[in-house]
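ENTRY TYPE: paired fold submission
RECORD: A
CONTENT: sequence, then structure tokens
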Amino acid sequence: MYTEPEQEQEQEMMKQRILGQDSQAKKQKAIAVSLNSFGVNYRKTIDKELIQIWIQSIQHLSLEQIARGTKRCLQEVEFFPSVAKFIELAKGRKESDRWVEPKPDQLLIEEKKERVPMPKEFKELFGNFLNKKSVK
């Protein structure tokens, strides 16, 4: 027999397990809906094996991330997305997110202050080219 606190603790643990299973079921349904919308949009047949692969691959994402990934894939990706591309879009990362604005006093790579002289040989060849009256 359980004592009062042990019984309450057991009930709380049972409630958490049920909620966790409910959350997993919602995620699985959301992933299946996402894949079916991809199937319609990209004209690809979606079978149960593909759904299982995606469920195993992206079950760590939240429902909001799955929704965001689905929306962004449908809007931004031209062909059926890979799992990696879906995760990238679901988490909101983009190549442009990696850019960091330079500080005002920071010299950029392109801002080299010393002049580079033009080679004499090139100057002569370029001068001869400009002085030609006809091009063969």
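RECORD: B
CONTENT: sequence, then structure tokens
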Amino acid sequence: MAIRQQKGRRGYLVEVYAGIDPITGRQRYKTGRATKRREAERLEARLRTEVAQGRHRGTAARNMSELLDIWLAWRATNGRPISPHTLNDYRGLVERKLKPGLGKLRVAQCDTLVLDRFYAHLRQGGNARTDGGPLSASRIHDVHAILSGALGLAVRYGWIAFNPARLTTPPAAAGETRAVPTPAQVRAVLAATAETDPEFHLFLRLCATTGLRPGEVCALRWLDLDLETGELTVSGNIVHAKGLERGYIRKKPKSRHGERVLALDPHTLELLRAHKARQRTRARESGSELADDAYVFPLDDAGNRPIRRDRMTRRFSSLAAQLGHDYTLYGLRHFVATQLGAVASTSTVRERMGHGSLQVTSVYTHRVSEADRAAAQYLGQLIGD
């Protein structure tokens, strides 16, 4: 910003920086003229206030609902990697939580006090699934991530002077209790499915012995398994989302630690061999051959389309409710980490779980023992045949 005396003319030119134009990417300035130096200083102060309040380029009329739509479109196309599942989740949060709560406010009205009160409201009664129960701290952190990104974009565009989300304090997610099944509960789940649904039984056993995320189990292909050496390669995750060409994508792990090779226990290997034989028979009966890149848990007989993670999650939730258990399908992953944390080294647990950070692994690790093949044997014996 500057006050300059005009050459060849009486008076002063005042220029105040007003941010980046969102369409052209060029810097924008608000200008004005005054005949005297004192008047120019007053004009500069007024223009600075107007810019800070978002009163240029129609920003006074811009509300949070518009800003959130603009941010979602920008986030989907700005080149930074984002999972389609995460993007859809953000869209859902915007429609269900943010627009009803903040959508009508002008962008400049959405200050730190408003955000703190909004987070407190969500924490007290923002969960529609529990008839107005508290929204979890981790979910409020997702809301905060959206608001921080959207308001940061508004700063870049010159609609507000600073990002109020940077000064807010969403509730800490640490300390929330994870529901982790006991070995007896896992054995009960496997016993309930062993005879009636061998495929679902195998899916659950893989979750309970390898610690794979449900999406990673859905992404398994036969080429990821070596049934001779008893090894499994984790190389991807399945994400189903609206707008994708096939309705899903198979994406690579988030970090290098996510790509890993794990040992399998003998009984799980037996079940995999039997499952492959059944799948090969079904493929031939449908007039095709089972390809190497066929999915281990497919929707079709040829193994071309992976099963949906949410479908398996719902099936497990129904089974757990029947058995009186109070944990989710993802709880089987926590079970593996917790059990291994008592007998294996931190590096072994990290390798098996694919944790990107030792800090995450340290939550589960209590004392040191031996490596991954021993871990596979231990988990196989723990839940039985």
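NOTES ON RECORD B: The mean pLDDT is 83. The beta strands are 2-5, 12-20, 27-34, 225-226, 231-234, 237-240, 248-251, 260-263.
STATUS: closed
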